[in-house]
Amino acid sequence: MRTSTILAILGAASCAVAIRCTQGLTYCGTSLVKKGNYTKDMQNALQREGRVSSSHNMLDSLYLCTADEDFLIWRNTCRRGACQDNGVDRDDVCVGQGEQPEDQDMDQEEQEEEDQEQGMEQSRTDCLL
Prior knowledge:
Elements: H1 3-13, E1 26-28, H2 29-35, H3 39-48, H4 55-59, E2 61-65, E3 72-77, E4 83-84, E5 93-94, H5 108-128
Antiparallel strand pairs: 1-2, 2-3, 4-5
């Protein structure tokens, strides 16, 4: 699925009645989507840290809820599907094999798309020769 499609789905899903995050707790992106309209806040948190707002980075990251309930601070990005919702009044965490390296901005799907596009460009060049 393309990132824009996923973000559109996130936006539609988050139009439900919002349940505010609790100041000082850490939430997975998936938990924030369930709570309400946090898509833009997650994008802003990632952008402040110089991270790409891909679906993986948005949904599999941990965010700290601050005193301004609409202001999130990006903490970390877990491996795909490894961000665990620990329930009410408990911090969410990364589980499994550890965390994704901070310098990895593209998720696997985006990297594959980029590789495929580069391969197509090379094929076009080879045909012209």
